[in-house]
Amino acid sequence: MIKLNKLSIRALGFAADDISLTIRPGEVHALIGPSGAGKTLILETIAGLYRPHSGKILINDQDVTRHPPEQRAFAYVPQDTSLFPHLSVEENILYGLRVTHQEIHSDIKQHVRRLTERLNISNLLDRLPGKLSGGERQRVALARALAIRPRLLLLDEPTSALDPAIKEETCYFFKELHREFRFSALLVTHNFEEAFFLSDVFSILIDGRIRQTGKRKEILYHPRDVDVARFLGVSNLFKGSIIRIKDDKVILSWEETGETITAKRTFRDEWVTEGMDIYWGVRPEDVHIVKGEHKREGENLFYANLLAVYSGKNNYNLVTRLASTGTVVKIALRDTVLHRLKISAGDLLQIHLIPETIILLPSG
Amino acid sequence: MSFKNLVIGCAVSIFALYALLLLSLLGFFEARGFTETLFSGRVLFSIRLSLIAATTSTILSVAIGLPAAYALSRYEFRGKQLIDTVLEMPMVLSPVSLGAVILIFFNTRPGEFIQSHVMTFVFEVSGIILAQFVTTAGIATRLIKTSLDEIPPRYEAVARSLGATPFNAFLTVTMPLARKGILAAAILSWAKAMGEFGATIMVAGSMAMKTETIPVAIFMRLAGADIGGAVVLITILLAFGMGVLSLVRFLGLPRHDQT
């Protein structure tokens, strides 16, 4: 088990504080943060290339904070892969084994052969890195890192420089490889798709601090604060106050509109008390449009004018304004849903905020 | 005149200047005298001495310049800026001044101690090597540093994460990638050492069959009004120099105007 204990880093004009996380054996942990947040610096500090200002890096409770990189066995795969351009693919893969004078016996040979086969690079062994495509380079870099059977694989934005199709293919290769070899990895990225595809546990890094760590659902539906929620794409964020709490329901007032909202209360919302000022939010993809004639009545139902429809890759982004107050509510719809609803800019819609998808956030 | 023609004109005029200077040698060139002078014992000694001294000083310059350049390229340390600036000293100080500084040093207590207890430099072959080394070490270090600066340090970072020690990472990754730059620095240092005159004559003098390198021999021939002999030696120096630069071009190495 690898532990980062209150790591504080000051280098190259970046500052990160209180970086604590645990990577269990066989776990892929993603450190997600905006671009330019110093994620690479954190990764390189864990690799041993920079000394932390304070805090500890522990491998099975052994303190390796002051160990040089070569004594950690944390294989680093930078964003640009940094394959050694003067060495062939095979020499790159065997580099770590050769430089540590490991006897390349049959067990290691078999391990390397399995890696190259699984990554579909067996036919590239004689090539120089300059002759490889982006996806091939990434796979060779993975093989080179895993050849030494590292204690931890450190991945810096592994697919961000790849074309969409190659990106997906590389992600699948990574997942298959992980299923077979069960290595531990720490991945830093600003790309949610990449992080959620590849990782088991997620830490959100904002302003040089880890704001939240958890599994996918927890991170997505129970962000700890407004910054995390905004970073994770909860773009409908509003002020409100708790009117009352009854069983598993929280009734709150929507400050901007004066309307009442019902949210489902979970064990993570125990901090919520009556009379408390809070923020609340809902993801654009969780806002539903009521089909057909606008005749439903009940909780969390509002009329809204559709202002604009913007097309995205897999969905459409709708901008609506509540008919009563003009408050903007964003909605994301799958292509097929939008076409089925047959709606266009200027239409009056009825929208539904489902209580289970309403996110409660502390105001301070 | 268009801008393009103007700049091409400048390039051609520089070529014309050098060509004119070289062509002027032809007026004093005698084929029979050439072979006689070339194969005379004194000239052969000068050639051999120049080759040995330039090669030795180049080896020393690269041997010290390479680690020094690596330190300047990769690490932050106190005094780095100062060292970086001092590397330019041989370029801003004329070779004669550099030679004078060396001579003055050997007139100080530490210099005298070195002369009497470690090695004699003044008026010796070792003095030629020292003069050439002082002239070329800074340049070699600067050229190698430029070459190392172009290699991303991340290669070494990855190598170390895969188990390589800093020295191993340097040896197996950085040095092979910088080999062309290092070789270019060595060749250009060698060419500069071969042509070195000012510092050499100040430190080692101009003793025939002892400290007379080719440039010193050219000076001595001209001093004795032997223009034909000087032309032969200039041709030899030119042949070595152009031969080396052609080698640089042939090997596809970066030339000093690119580094």
Biggest beta sheet attributes of chain A: 6 strands, mixed
Give the CATH superfamily of chain B: MetI-like
Strand content of chain A: 25-35%
What structural category arises from helix and sheet content of chain B?
A: mainly alpha
Overall mean pLDDT score of chain B? 89
Q: Count the strands of chain A?
A: 20
Q: What is the CATH top level name of chain B?
A: Mainly Alpha
Low-pLDDT runs of 5+ residues of chain A are: none
Distance between the termini of chain A: 34 Å
* Number of continuous helical runs of chain B: 13
Major sheet details of chain B:
none
Low-confidence runs of chain B (pLDDT<50, min 5 residues)?
A: 255-259
* Biggest interface found: A-B, 27 and 19 residues
The total beta strand count of chain B reads 0
Radius of gyration of chain B: 21 Å
Looking at the structure, what is the overall shape of chain B?
A: globular
Name the shape of chain A in a single word: elongated
**Oligomer kind:** heterodimer
Q: Compute the number of helices of chain A.
A: 9
List the SSEs and their pairings.
The complex is a heterodimer of chains A (364) and B (259).
Chain A: E1 2-11, E2 14-23, E3 28-32, H1 39-47, E4 54-59, E5 62-63, E6 74-77, H2 89-99, H3 106-118, H4 134-147, E7 152-156, H5 164-181, E8 185-189, H6 192-198, E9 201-206, E10 209-214, H7 216-221, H8 226-231, E11 236-246, E12 249-254, E13 260-264, E14 277-282, E15 287-289, E16 301-311, E17 315-322, E18 328-334, H9 335-341, E19 348-353, E20 359-362
Helix pairs in contact in A: 2-4, 3-4, 4-5
Chain B: H1 3-26, H2 31-38, H3 41-74, H4 80-86, H5 89-92, H6 95-105, H7 109-118, H8 125-149, H9 154-161, H10 166-194, H11 198-204, H12 214-223, H13 227-250
Helix pairs in contact in B: 2-13, 3-8, 3-10, 6-11, 8-10, 8-11, 9-10, 10-13, 12-13
